[in-house]
Design goal:
12% helix, single chain, 35% strand, mainly beta
């Protein structure tokens, strides 16, 4: 069951662009890992924002690389009708992580 206003946290094994568009149309929110080979069409580079500069949420050795507003997929295959945020970080052990969400009101750091 999916309820309006709910935020779902999911792993990259559950990536479904049509479902993301459906969720967004119904005001259902999500944050998910994005697969390394995911395609997206960049629209806008967003500023990298922090939740609270005096009390960071991420470990000190973690770095936010970018925060972008995009459409997922490609023109010829599965291009989403809605825009999403893609936030890329390098975590404290050097691992690259990419997140996708339809939450636009949170900081880059909160999404990461």
């Amino acid at each position: 069951m999916t309820d309006k206003g709910t935020v779902y946290i999911c792993d990259k094994g559950y990536i479904d662009y049509k479902k993301f568009d459906s969720y967004t149309s119904k005001e259902i929110y999500f944050v998910s890992h994005l697969k390394d080979n995911a395609k997206f069409k960049e629209a806008i580079n967003l500023p990298i924002t922090q939740y609270n500069k005096t009390q960071p949420l991420l470990l000190a050795a973690s770095t936010i690389i970018y925060d972008k507003k995009v459409r997922l997929g490609k023109e010829s295959i599965n291009l989403t009708k809605h825009f999403y945020r893609v936030v890329k970080i390098i975590d404290h052990i050097g691992k690259e992580l990419i997140f996708v969400t339809n939450l636009m009101c949170y900081s880059s750091e909160e999404i990461a």
